[in-house]
Design goal:
Blueprint (H helix, E strand, L loop, with lengths): L1 E2 L2 E8 L5 E9 L5 E10 L35 E6 L3 E2 L7 E7 L16 E4 L7 E3 L7
Antiparallel strand pairs: 1-6, 2-5, 2-8, 2-9, 3-4, 3-7
Length: 139
């Protein structure tokens, strides 16, 4: 796997906004977890722009502009698509890929005001959350 993985989360929340952090990890045969990469998006910035980005992009382009902000509607499913930091990793036979999702990262981002919301990440049917991995075939 080499490049930018892209997370596509279908979420619902009791709040109009939230932080979503995705961590891609590798788990070895003994259960030891190793960090591979991460990415994150604040829910109000989930609108994907069709405008030309002022810089090279590798995944969905978000302007992060106030006019493009889209609050979540509490209880309704919303889609969040964003790329993770680029990485290159060979997942060996017998190892597993793990995805961890968090709503906060106290060491790097200030928490949003208010009580923590109840959040659901949907995993099946038409709302099947996933991560698209940039797989490079072995030769």
């Amino acid at each position: 796997m080499t490049g930018h993985p892209v997370a596509r989360l279908f979420v619902s929340s009791t709040a109009a906004d939230g932080h979503f952090f995705v961590y891609l990890e590798e788990v070895d045969e003994q259960g030891h977890v190793r960090y591979v990469t991460e990415g994150g998006l604040r829910a109000i910035h989930r609108k994907i722009s069709n405008a030309r980005a002022p810089y090279k992009t590798f995944g969905p382009y978000h302007t992060f502009q106030r006019r493009d902000a889209r609050p979540l509607v509490p209880g309704q499913v919303a889609e969040l698509s964003f790329d993770l930091l680029p990485t290159s990793n060979l997942f060996r036979k017998g190892r597993r890929i793990r995805v961890a999702i968090a709503g906060a990262d106290k060491d790097h981002f200030d928490p949003l005001a208010g009580d923590p919301p109840a959040v659901r990440v949907h995993r099946g049917g038409v709302h099947a959350s996933r991560i698209d991995l940039p797989v490079i075939p072995r030769k």
